[in-house]
Structure formats: C-alpha cells, structure tokens
Fold:
Amino acid sequence: MVAFLSRLLESTPHEKVLHRIHTNAAAVSVIKANALADEKTEAHVEDEVADELNISLDSLLKVLARYDFPPSACSHIRGQEQIFGSRIGRDDKKNKVTAYDFWYAIRARAYIRAVDKEADLKMTIVTHYDVKSQSSVILLKHRSFNDLPKALKDELHDKLVDFILNPSTAALAGNPFALHLLHFNSTIQYYRRAARDPRDSVRKEEIKAHGGSSGLEEINIQRLHLTLTSLDQDKLQLNFILGVLARLRKQHDQFYRMVKGASDVDSRDWLYTRVEEEYDRFENQITYFKTSIEDVAARAQRLLDLLFNLSTRHSTHFSSRMAEEAMKESASMSTIAIMTMVFLPGTFVAVRFTTY
Structure:
C-alpha cells in the first residue's frame, strides 16, 4: 500500500488525509499502522501560520523516527536548502537493502500579470520506500505555501487523493518513482500555461507598437519588462527541472539494480518501462516549453528594443527641430558683446562687437 502525508504546511494534515479517505479501510490501516496520527488530538489546534511548519511536533518526530529519514531530508522540512539527494539503507549482517530514500525540490517564480505581482513556487518531495513491506511514504512540503497558485495546489492534491482511492494503486506501490508522475504532470500543466499566456500578451503589445504613436502610448513598458523577467526565470527553472528528471532517471536505474536486483534492463518489470516512457514524455514537453518560452522572451526583448529605438529617434527628431528654431531666431537678432581687457591698473580697452 501507499500512504501519503500531504500538505505539511496545513494544520493537522494527517487528520485531513484520514478524513478524505475514511471510506478506504486499507489506506486508513496503513496510515494508522505507520503511526502518523497524534495520540493527543489537541496537540495542534492553532490556526495556520504562513510560512511555518504547521504540523504538531509529535507527528513530525514520529515520521522522522519511524522512517529514519536522512539528515539532509530532515533539513528540507526545517526549510533549509537541499536540491537533490538519495540514500540506501542496508542490513550489514544479512547484506541486504532494507530501504531506499530519495528527495528533491521544485522551485519557480511566477509573475501574475493581472496584478503585477510575483508568486513563489517551492515544493520539496521526500520519498521513503521500505523493501520488506514494499510500501512507500511520500512527504510533500510546500514552502511559501500561501503563495502557491491555488489551481496548481488543488490539482496536485486532488490527484493524490484520487490516486490513493484507486484500487489499482497497490500495483504501483512496488515502484516509488511511479508516484512522482502525478507531480510532474501538474508541473507541466503549469509551465504549459506559463508558455502560452505571455505569448498572447506580447502579441497584443506588438500590434500596438505597429499602430502608430497612439498605439505606442498604450504599451505598458513596466508590465512588459516584468513579463520578460518572469520568462527568464522560467527558462532557468525549466533547465533545473530537466536536470532533476535526469537525476531521477539515474536513481530509478539504481533502484532496480540495487533494490530489485535487476541489473539487466530486459529483465525488469513493465512498471519500469512505463515510468521511463513517462520520463521521456516529460523531458520532450519541458524541452518544447523551454524553446517556446525562449522564443516569447526574444520577441519581448525585440519589442523593448524597438520601443527604445523609436523613443531615441523621436528624441533626436525633437532636438533637431529645436536646434533649427534656435538658429532661425539667432539669425534675426543682433547680439552685442562687450569684451573688456585690462592691461594696466586704472586703464582698460573696451571693444564693441556688433552683428547686423
């Protein structure tokens, strides 16, 4: 079975999970058997506090002690930076692998054009796989949780709940990497929107730029610059996600070699092939979105350059007209200058220059 402890930054997340899946006796038994519920129901009854770990200390200690998460994974939960890691638990006496842990983080900055604000997307995923019971425990930790777009948060959570309630989930519990396909599906949907929305807004601004001086005045340069900044950040994040996928594929191969004992790819089960196919699809889609975002960013940069050139041309033309007007006025005026030169104390020579 697979047990999920999701939304760690919400108050009493274990109670929320138990409430959502109370009709699934098997799932409830797994959560209870793994001691994820507090003995004291009043251990954490305060309201949610932004950017704090809103889970009772008793539950957190139980999770860390019960599953023996590595220190670097624990530092994730304390909010420190740790991008990717893994650990293999061994029984030295029997020379067998007892557990497999891996964790990674997804970070992004989202610019919301409608309100001219940025949102912080940070999520840490910690996975513990127990070889003996063939069960997986997934910890999802949202950082800056309140800034996480509600649609993305709800989409991911709903998928997790549906996944738990699905009877076929048990067949996937033997491969903890299969569970992360849900997370990357939601992430890809987010970047699909991130690639599409700016393209439409930049196209509208381009139409304004070619509509004459009246259209230029309607262009919001500040918003266009913020959009370009967000696109540059998206490119960095997509490169990072491609790196995460590459590391996950290496860890997936290591999992089958060291935990499943299947060194030969041809001898591995259908689930390995299915997960690798999904990783291929994710990499292709993210690479396409990265190329699309690079194209939109280049168009936005060209538009800013065009606006700068038009502004410079307008300023030069205005300066030229001002210079011509000044020359015309000077030609019709008489300028008198008196220059005094002092040679000796008490004497001077005054010269009168007149221009007619």
Notes: The mean pLDDT is 67. Strands lie at 2-5, 84-91, 96-112, 117-130, 135-143, 336-342, 348-354.
